[in-house]
Design goal:
With about 210 residues, the chain is mainly α. It is built from 7 helices and 3 strands; from the N terminus they run ααααααβαββ. The longest helix is centred in the middle third of the chain and has 30 residues. The chain is elongated, with a radius of gyration of 23 Å. The chain binds a DNA duplex (16 and 16 nucleotides) through α1, α3 and α4. Efficient DNA binding requires dimerization with another bHLH protein. GO terms for molecular function: DNA-binding transcription factor activity, RNA polymerase II-specific; E-box binding; protein dimerization activity.
Amino acid sequence: MSYKLRNEVCTLRAAETLCSFSPALSKPLQETGGTSRDSGGNLPGRQQRMFGRKTSGEQCGPRGRRRMKANDRERHRMHNLNSALDALRNILPALPEDAKLTKIETLRFARNYIWALTETLHMADHHPHTAASELRSPGSVSSLEWDSASPAESWSGATADELSCIQTSNGHNPTTLSHHAIVLIPLSTTGAGVSTETSLCRKKEVWVS
DNA sequence: TAGGCCATCTGGTCCT
DNA sequence: AGGACCAGATGGCCTA
């Protein structure tokens, strides 16, 4: 089962569980819960257990109603947060269709990506005459953790103006992506003494399309 | 089977 | 008072 499908099932069950608590709440969920995740599928085990769980939201009375409203808002808030993450994933460089970054991966990759772009701009200011035609073929490879917490440190092997473009694995199975890499193929401005390829990769494995 | 990831519920805290 | 935000808890699914 793909990552995406797994989450579809998960959200579906939660949605239907919610409906079981209060049919009235199913509407906002369908409207905002955003996404295709809320449609289709059957209702296996997890929901059965959720049905059985006694929550304060199930209780009638003012307190129970307040809790249910708060739960609804919280759910809505988290859906918005996830939508923002999806939007962020969409503007990150060319990931394969099926490959969805996890939340933490998305944030870390975005951070690293921004860092790379910033450094590229910075170096472009210092070397305005540098042309894309000077792109060289990759040579040595230095592997870096894909979700490195500190891009500036992790990418110290390459000067900033080397970081020019980003490629990704084009594997179709999302689980394969976790074993492959997103690779920054650098531009060389001087052609001397610099590493020619820097990668963001997971599990120390570099894969270049 | 353990670990990772996820959605949801929940109570506390802060803000308007 | 009510909403937003946060972090902990819970439980399901998947992969290695």
